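[Q] Does anyone have a clean structure-token version of this?
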Amino acid sequence: MPTNPVKPTLLLAAAALALPAAGSLSAQQLEPVEGEVLTTVYGTPPADLSGLEEGPGIDGFITARKGDRIQVTTADGVQRTISLSAATEIRSSGGFLGLSKTSLGEDSLLNGLPVDVDTVRWGNGLVASRIALKSKDLKTAAMIHRGTAQGFAEQTAATDALRSRVGDIDEYNVKGTTNVYFDTGRYDLSGEARADLCSAASQAEATDNAILLVVGYTDSTGSYEVNQELSEKRAERVVNYLQQQCGWKPYRMLTPTGMAEADPAADNATDYGKQQNRRVAVNILVSKSVDGL
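[A] Here you go.
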């Protein structure tokens, strides 16, 4: 498996993520993964939804929440971003035959909660006019949420313990690097990449005091803006897979970053070189202060 050892300057870059800028059309375009809908709605949703065109009904699970927007993922994996308005009605049903209705606040919209959403169209996006859920589902989601909060507290304690051993030290020994590769303009993981990532996680797990640094790259095709966003999405996809499917703990990972076409592993003048540069490097690091303990 090809390797590309992490460079000292890379450790400094890992401390901050560059904000992707809006780029013009180029030879290389960012392609969403199949089944993924990327929708951004700007501005404050109207408080009066009357007169707006009726949108589609969406039945699925809440998979993300940020401000006045929620993401609902349907049973077939399609993700829809829906705005919340002051006029959005949130209701739960329960009791005998589910006939008891209760009005709820936005704080009840927890991740993992099954919902049935009626929408209206607002510009290029959707606003929820009504969100229906079941009381028993809300109870379950609340229990999971409380359990997750407890898990975060335990994770914070583990993070503090780890930082007490490696804090304020910016020099690491590289114990191994695994590269996974991508098609042009893509950031979805191949079967081979998924297997390689869990193998890398197993290798890191067997290494005392190991942490991971994930860095995304692109080839030289396309504009800097597009490549920066693409490299970040590649790194993000790898981090998610390592944590969700390979069992790697989030607190044992440095901040991931995208480096666009910087630090090429091969010559971008050839197709083979570009293939080698469309990669994410998963670096296994051990702080020099604890290496060998």
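[Q] Thanks! Anything notable?
[A] Residues 204 and 210 are 6 Å apart (CA to CA).
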